[in-house]
Amino acid sequence: MSPDELQAMALLALVAFTCEYFDASLGMGYGTTLTPILLLMGYAPLEAVPSVLLSEVVAGVAAGGWHHRLRNVSFRRGSPELAVVGILVVFGAIGGLVAVFAAVELAPTVVRAYIGGMVVMTGLTILLLRGRMPPLRRGRLVAVALVAAFNKGIGGGGYGPVVTGGQLLSGQEPRKSVAVTALAEALVSLVAVVAYVALRERVDWAIVLPLMAGAVLSTPLSALTVRRLPQRALRPIIAAAMIVLGGLTLAGLAVGPS
Q: What is the pLDDT of residues 74-112, one digit of tens each?
């Protein structure tokens, strides 16, 4: 392996570490941030998205485990949070599969436009509805799962803002919202990865392995951050992150390759 290849892998690991730290701390930001970065680095959408999804499977499970271990949430059998994860995964699998088929058929420029546009609209919607949305019922949670997973499958990101924001607007505690999103996102990503492989899309392990290593290494620190931050402080931080992610995605789309 050449020095240039080692340098590229180290850079990917560092970027994944940073993105997953914020994702597992705020419930959003890994795919939403990492996918545009990979596009700007010159990777094609169908190289970047499966790599992000596969690394998110491992990182999300690790993050969920650390959140459970540090008592940010309980994923014990029969817990309400585990039931929410189940709903998000079952209906998220449907949205993710639809998205994968759409991503394979759509032109790369269309996929990139969707990545930027959907995340910006999500951030604006959450900002406008914050504090005025009624308690989240089962039907609304299903809709949240479908839309969020479609975002994840087609662009590698846009899942966390929808799921975490939907839970917060329903009155869920910030710590539990972040932890539930991490675990559900990992399982939905697994469904999307299987679909990509079934459609004979190649997984580039030279991208996946450094992303996976960097992301997993950040998860204990993320769970500890969530544990130490007061609930009152965590909620406005998450809200601000949604707005920033939307702006960054739009800026990345504007300067990215066509």
A: 999 989 889 889 988 888 888 877 877 777 677 766 666
Residues 26-54 pLDDT 10s:
888 888 788 878 888 888 888 888 899 99
List C-alpha distances in Å: 2 to 5, 109, 154.
5, 32, 33
Give which of 84, 243, 235 is closest to 173, Cα–Cα. 235
The helix or strand, by DSSP H or E, that contains position 3, with its residue range, turns out to be helix 3-26
- Whether the CB-CB separation of 220 and 63 falls below 8 Å is answered with no
What Cα–Cα distance (Å) separates residue 167 from each residue in 135, 140, 174, 214? 9, 10, 8, 28
pTM value? 0.81
- d(CA 43, CA 255) in angstroms, rounded, equals 15
Q: What is the largest CA-CA distance in the chain?
A: 56
Give the Cα separation of 80 and 74 in Å (integer).
8
Q: Tokens for 187?
A: 């399982």
C-alpha–C-alpha distance, residues 197 and 247, integer Å: 32
